[in-house]
Amino acid sequence: MGGGSSAKEHPLEYLGASAGAAAINYPLWRASAVGQSGFAVRMSIAGNTVPPSISPYLYAFAPPYKGMVATVVGMTWARAAIFWGSDRGREILQKRGVPDAVSTVVPPLMVSTAVQCINMPIVRASITLQNPDAAHLPDTRSALKQIYNSQGLRGLWHGTSAGILKTVPKYCTAVVVKDYMESILPHPDESSPTLERDRLWRSAQKSAVAGVAGAALTNPLDVIRNEMFKTNASLTHTVKHLYKELGYAFLWRGMGKNMVAVAIPVGCTIFFTDALIQMTNDRQRRKEQQEHDT
Q: In sequence order, what are the residues at sequence separation of 6 or more whose Cβ sits closer than 8 angstroms to the Cβ of residue 87?
C-alpha cells in the first residue's frame, strides 16, 4: 500500500488505519455476528415488533456494547499485522528474487494463519457475548472464564479450523486483489492540481474491490465458524446440521450483513492506510523542501 512506499517505513500508519476501521465498523461486525450465528433477536419499538431482517442491525447499535474494547483491540492488531506483514513480507521476498506470485500469496497466508490462532479465544468470547441469551455474561473476561470452565483450554480454540478456513482465504484474496488493482489502475498525473484527490480516489477503487472480493468468498465459512461457536459441535457435524436445516441456503445466510461487516472494514483499512501514508509522505516532502529552501 501507499503507492510505492515501503511498508517498513510505515508500521504506525498501518496500526492507525486498522484502529480507525475497527472502531468505526464495530456495530457492523456485531450485526454480522448476530446474523451469521443465527441468534434469536427480538426487538420492539413503541409496542411494534421489529422485522427479523432489521432487528440485528438495531440490536447491534443498541447498548450495552459488551466486549467492545476487546473486539476493537483484537481487530486492530490483527488487521494491522496481516496487512503490514503481507506487504513487508512481499518486499523481503521480492528482494530475494522470489517470483511475484509466491511473494504475494505466501506472506498473507502465513501471517493470517498465525493471527487467527493467536486471536481465537478473543474472537470466540466476543461472538459469545453477542448472544441475547448470554445476558449473564457482562464482559469478555467472564465469557472466556465460562468457556474455559465448561470446555477446558481446548474450548477457547474451538472453531479454529473453520476460522482459519475463513480468515486466511479472506485476507489472501483481499491482499492479492489489492496488489492486482495497484498494478493495473492508472497512476494520477503528478502535475495535476487535484493530485491528492486523484490519489485518494484511486485508493478508494482499489480498497472497495479488495474488500468485496474477500467478503463474498468467505461468507459460508463465517456461517460455519459462528455456528460452531454456538453449538460447540465439530466442523463436520456443523456442516451436516446446517445443510439439513437450511439446505444450500446456509451458504449465503447473513450474506448481506457480512458484505457490510467485512467488505467495509477491510476496504476502510486499506484506504485509511494509503491515506495516512500519503499524508506522512507529503509532510516529509514539505519538511525536506523547507530545509532545502533555507
A: 1, 7, 107
Decide the pairing of beta strands 44-45 and 48-49.
antiparallel
Hey, is 5 helix, strand or coil? coil
Contact 48, 284 (CB under 8 A): no
Burial string for 136-167 (b: 16+ CB within 10 Å, else e) reads: ebebbebbbebbeeeeeeebbbbbbbbbbbbb
As a whole number, the mean pLDDT across the chain is 87
Q: How far apart are CA 107 and CA 110, in angstroms?
A: 5
| Bond into 265 cis (ω within 30) | no
Average pLDDT over residues 57-67: 82
Residue 230, all three cell numbers: 454456538
* Neighbouring-strand partners of residue 92: none
Distance between CA atoms of 22 and 119, rounded to whole angstroms? 15
Q: Please say if the pLDDT value at position 264 is more than 60.
A: yes
- How much is the pLDDT for 286? 85
